[in-house]
Amino acid sequence: MPAGGVDLGWQSVFRAKKITGPYEAKVVMAQGNSVINGPHQGAWVHTQFDEDWFIHFQSKQAYGWVSKHLLLASNS
Questions:
Q1: β-bridge partners, 54
Q2: Prior bond to 2 cis, omega within 30?
Q3: How far out from the chain centre does Cα 14 lie?
Q4: Is-contact 68 56, C-beta < 8 A?
Q5: Measured distance CA(7)–CA(27) in Å, rounded
Q6: Element at 72 (helix H, strand E)
Q7: Does residue 76 register a pLDDT over 60?
Q8: Cβ atoms of 23 and 9 closer than 8 Å
Q9: pTM assigned to the model
Q10: Nearest Cα residue to 53 out of 62, 61, 44
Q11: pLDDT tens digits for 17-69?
Q12: What is d(CA 5, CA 75) in angstroms, rounded to the nearest whole number?
């Protein structure tokens, strides 16, 4: 689920044992130290070399979603 707004937001997941809650939240993707804002719409890619990558669009405010980025994903 996107959270924190389009330009500087992050992606979160929520889970509960019952549909009525209580829910616990976890941030699963965040901008970190990158100059690329986001993360935004995209896809997680796992390669045959056991690498994980994330490809996504970047929001450029009035210009819209203009760029694609391929970023190495890690658990850190």
A1: 44, 71
A2: no
A3: 14
A4: yes
A5: 16
A6: strand 65-72
A7: no
A8: no
A9: 0.52
A10: 44
A11: 999 999 999 988 777 777 776 666 778 889 999 999 988 777 777 777 676 77
A12: 23
